[in-house]
């Protein structure tokens, strides 16, 4: 999934400057994307990272405080053909 963090000055549309997408897979932080290309790279990167209890705790705390999250389900987009 990708959690969207909008520019605190507000009002910017999706995928515009000032919008960061924090990519998480199985409670492991994979990185932050600021462009479509960075997002694609993070989505399809092979990751051997294990479950990160610190990331889990941070995200669960954030989810509890912000029940209406702005997020993307990255499983719904197909992997590019090589």
Concise synopsis of the structure shown:
With 82 residues, the chain is an alpha+beta fold.
What would you say this structure looks like, in words?
By secondary structure, this protein is of the alpha+beta class. Helix content is 26%, strand content 22%. The chain has two helices and four strands. It has helices at residues 36-43, 53-65, and strands at 2-5, 20-25, 28-33, 71-72. It has a four-stranded antiparallel sheet with strand order 3-2-1-4, with helices on one face. A hairpin with a 2-residue loop joins strand 2 and strand 3. The chain is globular. The model has no long low-confidence stretch (mean pLDDT 78).
Low-confidence stretches are none
Q: Trace the largest sheet across and list its strands.
A: 3-2-1-4
Helix count? 2
Shape: globular
Question: Which structural category fits the helices and strands?
Answer: alpha+beta
Radius of gyration: 13 Å
Would you count the extended β strands for me? Answer: 4
Output the helix-strand order. Answer: EEEHHE
Helix content: 25-40%
Oligomer: single chain
Determine the mean pLDDT.
78
How is the biggest beta sheet arranged?
A: 4 strands, antiparallel
Strand content: 15-25%
Key phrases:
82 residues; alpha+beta; 2 helices; 26% helix; 22% strand; four-stranded antiparallel sheet
What topology emerges from the helices and strands here?
Elements: E1 2-5, E2 20-25, E3 28-33, H1 36-43, H2 53-65, E4 71-72
Antiparallel strand pairs: 1-2, 1-4, 2-3
């Amino acid at each position: 999934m990708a959690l969207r963090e909008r520019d605190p000055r507000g009002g910017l549309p999706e995928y515009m400057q000032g919008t960061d997408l924090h990519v998480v897979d199985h409670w492991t932080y994979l990185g932050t994307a600021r462009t479509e290309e960075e997002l694609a790279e993070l989505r399809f990167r092979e990751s051997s990272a294990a479950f990160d209890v610190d990331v889990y705790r941070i995200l669960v705390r954030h989810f509890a405080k912000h029940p209406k999250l702005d997020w993307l389900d990255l499983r719904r987009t197909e992997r590019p053909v090589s």
